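User: Some background: our group keeps a shared notebook of sequences we're curious about, and every so often someone picks one and asks for a predicted structure to add to the entry. Today it's my turn. The entry only has the sequence so far, pasted here. Could you supply the structure so I can complete it?
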Amino acid sequence: MDIRIGLSDSPRELAVSSSETQEDVLARVNTAIAEGHPTLVLEDEKGRKFLLRTDRVAYVEVGNSSARSVGFAR
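Assistant: Of course. Here's the predicted structure to add to the notebook entry:
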């Protein structure tokens, strides 16, 4: 699944590919922000970890990753 996170005061966004479900990711982000946790850790499919400051999260976009077709096949 593709996760894109917009950060305040930054023109770029963070893109993470995760094996977690949409509900799990949104629940973790929502809980961290609602409970006032200073940071949130997300892990991608390759095992890399991303540490985010929750007070800087502007938006979170969660979507399914789809395989792109290559060539002339329909």
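Suggested note for the entry: The mean pLDDT is 88. Residues 22-34 form the longest helix (13 residues).
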